[in-house]
Specification:
Layout lengths: L1 H10 L8 H7 L11 H8 L2 H12 L4 H8 L3 H21 L1
Helix pairs in contact: 4-6, 5-6
Length: 96
Amino acid sequence: MVNTSLDSLRKRKRLDLVEEDVLLSFDSGKVDKYEEFDLKKALEELPERYRIIVILRYFEDLKIEEIAEVLNENINTVKTRLYKSLEILRLNLKEV
């Protein structure tokens, strides 16, 4: 689900400029509270070494090679940890 959503967002990446007054006209003044997302909880439950890789890959949009360089890890280690973290997330989200 996460991968499909991210792929969809990447495909639709475009820049639409809107005037500030138009944006403010849509503001209802309410603050959205999405703190109870299952994904956020599942990410918090991941061990730090797995969580960092998921965040860098899917939220910061870094490539595997870039993550390996940032973390000073072997590329295969990063791939293995990413695979393992996605597996853990799938299991955790399936339980919810």
